[in-house]
Specification:
The protein has 111 residues and is α+β, with helices and mostly antiparallel strands. It has 3 helices and 2 strands, in the order ααβαβ.
Length: 111
């Protein structure tokens, strides 16, 4: 059995490198996550829904699993949103997205 390598402080850098490689190859990673690209989502859902929107979120916010301080977590989220709005190319590094679909036959009820 191979010995485990303790990368310690280099782990975030190695994790980013691994994620970028996965995105480049457009494959699922070893945890079973599926990489969806915007055009794939558009092609799959546009024939069936009136409105299809994919909004990438969580670039830095992916660290939420490691942060226990709610105030710090809120600041990381806001920094994430600021960076993604100013530098849209960074959305390729996001680990999560929100997909919004609107059914063409859906009835809009008054609020």
């Amino acid at each position: 059995m191979p010995a485990k390598l303790n990368v310690g402080p280099l782990y975030p850098v190695l994790e980013l490198y691994r994620r970028l490689g996965t995105l480049r190859r457009n494959k699922s990673n070893e945890r079973g996550e599926v990489i969806l690209k915007r055009d794939m989502v558009q092609q799959a859902f546009t024939p069936h829904f009136e409105h299809v929107e994919m909004r990438p979120i969580s670039m830095l916010y992916m660290a939420k699993r490691k942060i226990n301080n709610l105030g710090l977590l809120r600041k990381v989220f806001l920094l994430d949103q600021l960076l993604l709005s100013r530098f849209p190319a960074l959305t390729m590094l996001c680990g999560e997205s929100i997909v919004t679909l609107r059914n063409p036959t859906a009835v809009n009820y008054p609020a």
